[in-house]
Amino acid sequence: MKEEIRAELEAWGHEVIDFGCESSESTDYPQYAHEVAEEVASGKAERGVLVCTTGIGISMAANRHKGVRAAPCRNCDMTYLTRIHNDANVIAFGSRYTTILDARAMLRVFLEAQFSNEERHARRNDGIEIID
């Protein structure tokens, strides 16, 4: 799935920085989540895309980084709402539960939908960040 998503993004004219593993062997996914999250948190990348079996573990690892709002998505409605309400900047796909056709559709929504900037959503998003 990662390879197909990367090819799709490149075909749409996006620059892709690929941190992912290069085989279908089981791997320790947190390292990839951290690399993508650091890129997004630093501002070097505007958005990130993660893939693991469920999308859950990899998003949990990415969300450990301040300023990263990773969301595992299962459909376009979830994707749209997490962008406009939560200003998600990383999407996580579960390859066991997501077809490549659905991933492409969600990816399009993820890239096109913009945060609403409504006060209630901004306030809630501020509440997500841990205060040191």
Topology (SSEs and partners):
Layout (H helix, E strand, L loop, with lengths): L1 H10 L18 H12 L6 E5 L3 H7 L7 E3 L3 H9 L5 E5 L5 H13 L6 H10 L4
Parallel strand pairs: 1-3, 2-3
Helix pairs in contact: 2-3, 4-5
Computed CA radius of gyration, to the nearest angstrom: 14 Å
Sheet having the most strands: 3 strands, parallel
Shape field: globular
Helix content: 40-55%
The number of helical runs is 6
- Under the CATH scheme, which class? Alpha Beta
According to DSSP, the number of beta strands is 3
Q: Please identify, by name, the CATH architecture.
A: 3-Layer(aba) Sandwich
Q: What string, H for helix and E for strand, traces the elements in order?
A: HHEHEHEHH
Strand content: 5-15%
- What is the residue-averaged pLDDT? 93
The largest beta-sheet arranges its strands as: 1-3-2
Look at the helices and sheets and give the structural class. Answer: mainly alpha
- State the separation between the terminal residues, measured CA to CA: 37 Å
Total number of domains: 1
Jot down its keywords:
Ribose 5-phosphate Isomerase B, Chain: A; three-stranded parallel β-sheet; mainly alpha
Description:
By secondary structure, the protein is mostly helical. It has a single domain, classed as Ribose 5-phosphate Isomerase B, Chain: A, CATH 3.40.1400.10. Helix content is 46%, strand content 10%. The chain has six helices and three strands, in the order ααβαβαβαα. It has helices spanning 2-11, 30-41, 56-62, 76-84, 100-112, 119-128; strands at 48-52, 70-72, 90-94. The protein has a three-stranded parallel beta sheet with strand order 1-3-2, sandwiched between helices. α2 packs across α3 (56-62) and α4 (76-84) packs parallel to α5. The chain is globular, with a radius of gyration of 14 Å. It starts with a helix and ends with a helix. The model has no long low-confidence stretch (mean pLDDT 93).
